[in-house]
Design a protein that fits this description.
Blueprint (H helix, E strand, L loop, with lengths): L2 E2 L8 E2 L10 E4 L2 E4 L4 E2 L1 E6 L13 E6 L13 H4 L8 E2 L2 H10 L5 E6 L8 H13 L3 E6 L5 H7 L5 E5 L5 H6 L4 H14 L1 E8 L7 H14 L5 E5 L14 H12 L5 E4 L2
Parallel strand pairs: 7-9, 9-10, 10-11, 11-12, 12-13, 13-14
Antiparallel strand pairs: 1-2, 3-4, 5-8, 6-7
The protein binds iron/sulfur cluster (SF4).
The site of iron/sulfur cluster (SF4) has 12 residues, from loops.
């Protein structure tokens, strides 16, 4: 029997035993199951600024967990070895209870909670949800670093458990998002909803020749300011990675120029990877 996954707009229709586009969710016995539940590819105590979050518990560190899978197909992916991977990628298992115990044990080193990051955490929705509930109960914070590609109902259900979120806004044209296998309007909705409920920052990776025009940054930052001019925006520099090796890194001057345009409408704009 085929089943449709309704977690994101792809709405993969999966025959028995088949895995979705994200490589993280599959049809097992007529139900959609997350293959990456409790299966980690990375676990590290990171500075909160590395997420990046600049205006959320500055100077602190956070236990950062990653699994495998992603529901976009960015040719310039900076984490392709885990994001574009399937079950072969995980290196350890970790139940939600074990993750919270580790987070608590690291408190003495300044740990404030758990960040779900590295791959696209939302394709492992159930693990994030279950961990986040325990982390919250333990009096620590939950941070999510995401591409924001999720349907409205599960996003609304998860947001009350989240304290800090960074959403990638990969550009501001539908054409660019289509090339990445994504949907701009979905990400805009996720940003608007997150801004209502938790601390939100946004990251835009500037890819030379793709999303680096003044007009696009003016439109992107103008829209973000219409949600709230207080939302921090990280304008970040691209380096050749994965399947996009045909161009040089973004010139630093381009990043500075675009950040300057964003500052015309947003109060907090940061440059990244410069
Ligand atoms: S979360 Fe994965 S399986 Fe579900 S619809 Fe999106 S890409 Fe398909």
């Amino acid at each position: 029997m085929s089943v449709t996954c309704t977690l994101c707009f792809h709405h993969c229709v999966l025959e028995e035993g088949r895995t979705g586009l994200c490589r993280a969710r599959a049809n097992r016995d007529g139900a959609i199951v997350p293959l990456n539940y409790g299966r980690l590819t990375a676990l590290a105590l990171d500075p909160i600024e590395k997420k990046p979050l600049r205006r959320f518990h500055p100077g602190s560190v956070i236990l950062s967990a990653g699994s495998f899978g992603c529901n976009l197909r960015c040719s310039f992916c900076q984490n392709a070895e885990i994001a574009a991977a399937g079950t072969e990628a995980y290196t350890r298992t970790c139940t939600p209870e074990q993750l919270v115990q580790q987070a608590l044990a690291l408190r003495e080193k300044g740990n404030i909670g758990v960040a779900y990051t590295y791959n696209e955490p939302l394709v492992g929705y159930e693990y994030v949800r279950d961990c986040a509930a325990l982390v919250r109960r333990a009096g620590m914070v939950n941070v999510l670093v995401t591409n924001g590609t999720i349907e409205e109902a599960p996003w609304r259900a998860l947001l009350p458990l989240l304290d800090g979120v960074n959403i990638d806004l990969k550009g501001f044209t539908e054409a660019w998002y289509r090339r990445l296998g994504g949907d701009l309007e979905t990400v805009k909705r996720s940003i608007a909803l997150a801004a209502e409920q938790c601390h939100l920052e946004v990251t835009t990776l500037v890819v030379p020749g793709e999303n680096d025009s003044d007009e696009e940054m003016r439109a992107l930052s103008g829209w973000l300011a219409s949600v709230s001019p207080e939302i921090p925006l990280h304008v970040s520099r691209f380096f050749p990675r994965h399947r996009m090796q045909d161009r040089p890194p973004t010139p630093v001057q381009t990043v500075y120029r675009l950040a300057g345009i964003a500052r015309e409408q947003l109060r907090y704009v940061y440059t990244g990877n410069c």
